[in-house]
Amino acid sequence: MAKKNDMSKTLEKYGQMMKKFGSEVGEVAKKGEENVIIMSKLFKIQMDILGVSLQREKLYYKIGKEVADKLTKGTFEVSGLEKYKKELDKIRTEGEKKKKALSKVKSPGKKKVKKTK
User: In whole angstroms, what is the distance from residue 68 CA to residue 71 CA?
Assistant: First the structure.
């Protein structure tokens, strides 16, 4: 019976403080969750940008290979490379879109941050 009384006294004494602590821990966990979501979005967009860069490098390789082949044969003409311009523009545009998306995720606007006491 003495233990029961000790527990109720402890709850009376520290109950309010424990509730406050619990709510503060909940707020911190929620902010941490939001940060994880933002970080995962940033990572995905950065991986997309890396993929676009890789596509561009592959295209440059293809162009270089064709130019080198034509140079060795002596049949090099710039007009023969026009077919790559459209594809290169498409890759460049996609890369710019990804970079804009990245900047939007990095700075979505000013949010009011609640300070915990």
Answer: 5
Instruction: Give dist(CA 64, CA 80) in Å, integer.
Output: 12
Q: What is the mean pLDDT of residues 11-22?
A: 80
pTM: 0.57
Tokens of 95: 């890369």
Q: Nearest-CA neighbor of 45 among 100, 107, 7?
A: 100
Tokens at residue 94, please? Answer: 């996609």
Q: Is 74 left (phi over 0), alpha (psi -120 to 50) or beta?
A: left
Contacts of 98 (CB under 8 A, 6+ apart): 45, 48, 49, 52
Distance CA 87, CA 97 (A): 16
Q: At residue 3, what is the residue type? A: K
Q: Which one-letter DSSP state was computed for residue 20?
A: H
Q: Is 112 helix (H, G, I), strand (E, B) or coil?
A: coil
Number of Cα atoms under 13 Å in the Cβ half of residue 29: 6
Cα distance between residue 29 and residue 36, in whole Å: 11
